[in-house]
Amino acid sequence: MKKLRLIILALVLAACAPAVAQAQVQGQLTASGQDIVKAVSQARGKVVVVNFWASWCGPCRQEIPELIELRKRIPADKLLIIGVSLDQDQNMYAMFTAKAGFNYPVYMATPDVGPAFSIRAIPRTVVYSPKGEMIHSEEGYYPGEELELLIKKYMGA
Known about the structure:
Layout: H1 2-22, E1 25-28, H2 34-42, E2 47-53, H3 58-73, E3 79-85, H4 90-100, E4 106-108, H5 113-116, E5 124-128, E6 134-139, H6 144-155
Parallel strand pairs: 1-4, 2-3, 3-4
Antiparallel strand pairs: 2-5, 5-6
């Protein structure tokens, strides 16, 4: 049974390979989310938005297209967006990322990432200043227009 699931997963991933590559899917986060910590520290001079989500979450599915549009409007040298899926089903994650059209890096978190970042509800959006300081944390749907205003406030800082 486990072998059959692995074969099915391999077939799904193979079928989705071109779309997944476009989505910039990065694999799994390390145990305590060190990939996020590293990305924030390496993004000095940029505003960083980390969005925790799951494919089954309605408000998350509402936010993601707004983040994709935001990524189109604000250049990569000013803004880094990182998506972190808390999905536990790799198949659902793969199918969603293949269809969503992500234009920013997306990771699938290991189970300990949620507790490491004190995730109590999703979506959760965390914003870091160009100096690497956390300037905002929002649980629940965060409208793209409000997020854009916050980002633009700190872009020149």
